[in-house]
Design goal:
One of its GO terms (biological process) is circadian rhythm. Helices cover 33% and strands 41% of the residues. By secondary structure, the chain is an alpha+beta fold. A hairpin with a 4-residue loop joins strand 3 (101-108) and strand 4 (113-135).
Amino acid sequence: MAVKRCIKSAFLITLLAVLCQSARVKKFPTYIQKCHQSDQDFEKCLLKAVQIIKPHLQDGIPEFRLPKMNPLTLPEVGIDAGAGFIAKFENVEIYDADKFIIKKFDVNLAENKIKFDLTFPHIRIKAQYSIFGKVLFFNLDGSGPADGNITDCRVIATMNGMRVYQQDKQYLKLTETVVDDIEFGKPEFKFYDLFKNNPELTEQTNKIININMKALLDDLRPTLEDTIGKTVLEFIGRVFSRFSIEELFPK
């Protein structure tokens, strides 16, 4: 009886170990053809893979731990431009971020770098805002809903990383995103309730802000670049922390 109990216990332990291991198995999306490091047109293959991935971004890609991107939700975005100007956007929803046009996507494994150049033809942003400080001629201290549209937003950036080992596998750990350039086509925003109980002044202020929006965004460029860089790092970093270099790009 003791021998049978030992055999039964050993079987259960083995079965439990197998089940736990199966639960950790990482599945690569079946619709993506992997790009091999030895491919002569490695970057061309990567661009093709991104095009295949794009339609799936709307609802998210669980295999890559990527949430749905239409809308892409961010809990909070803060802007501290100095000189007493502070803005906070909560419950941010970004629409059509999955409909980007990608011109360059270069993964340089020798230098542990990723370079990309992409354009968003149209983005809509909805959020709850709070603004305190001077904007143009106005001293603002308001909060409420915000609704904005941006056309032809282009982002050129470089992601830097380092090699790390996990369970005898090499991973590319992305550590920072350097935004080399960011361009905006036509940005337009509406901030509701800038002046409580004064819709006329709120409307006029919105008009003046939008007339000068490009200049305002230029002033906020360092903060915007930092916010965009951190957001990109978080999402692309999920893919590279999930799969090893060999799993993503076989030799």
